[in-house]
């Protein structure tokens, strides 16, 4: 059985509250779970007690092969229970495909306008010196 340490959503609409649970990976997000390990209240301020986790039980389940999800792994890393490797996605900040196409068209139009202005400027200078 593949075990996951993950979040199960509770709370009402627009007022999220999550339970940190151990569950079979095949069970639904808010469905059946094996054990509740803590909670996370994202509405509390960041410097407050947002995350509460039973460290002893988390260590137990990690030793039994439970895999934490990315969000839970962040919490466990802050608590010093597990190590989360830093990720690097340099393409995340790049604009989308259509935005890149628009930027390329705009740049080409500016270059064409600059080239046209550069060819027009010497012709005006020659006309001014000829007079």
From TrEMBL:
Biased composition (Low complexity): 112-131
Superkingdom per UniProt: Bacteria
Keyword flag Ribonucleoprotein: yes
Listed SUPFAM superfamilies: Ribosomal protein S16
Pfam families: Ribosomal_S16 (PF00886)
Keyword Ribosomal protein: yes
Protein keywords: Ribonucleoprotein, Ribosomal protein
GO cellular component, one term: ribosome
NCBIfam families: S16
Family affiliation: Belongs to the bacterial ribosomal protein bS16 family.
Name assigned to this protein: Small ribosomal subunit protein bS16
Organism whose genome encodes this protein: Mesorhizobium humile
């Amino acid at each position: 059985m593949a075990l996951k340490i993950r979040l199960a959503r509770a709370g009402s609409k627009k007022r999220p509250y999550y339970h940190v649970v151990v569950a079979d990976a095949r069970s639904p997000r808010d469905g059946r779970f094996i054990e509740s390990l803590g909670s996370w209240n994202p509405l509390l301020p960041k410097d407050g007690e947002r995350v509460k986790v039973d460290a002893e039980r988390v260590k137990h389940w990690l030793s039994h092969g439970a895999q934490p999800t990315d969000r839970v792994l962040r919490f466990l890393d802050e608590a010093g229970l597990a190590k989360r490797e830093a990720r690097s996605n340099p393409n995340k900040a790049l604009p989308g495909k259509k935005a890149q196409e628009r930027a390329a068209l705009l740049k080409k139009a500016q270059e064409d306008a600059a080239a046209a202005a550069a060819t027009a400027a010497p012709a005006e200078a020659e006309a001014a010196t000829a007079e």
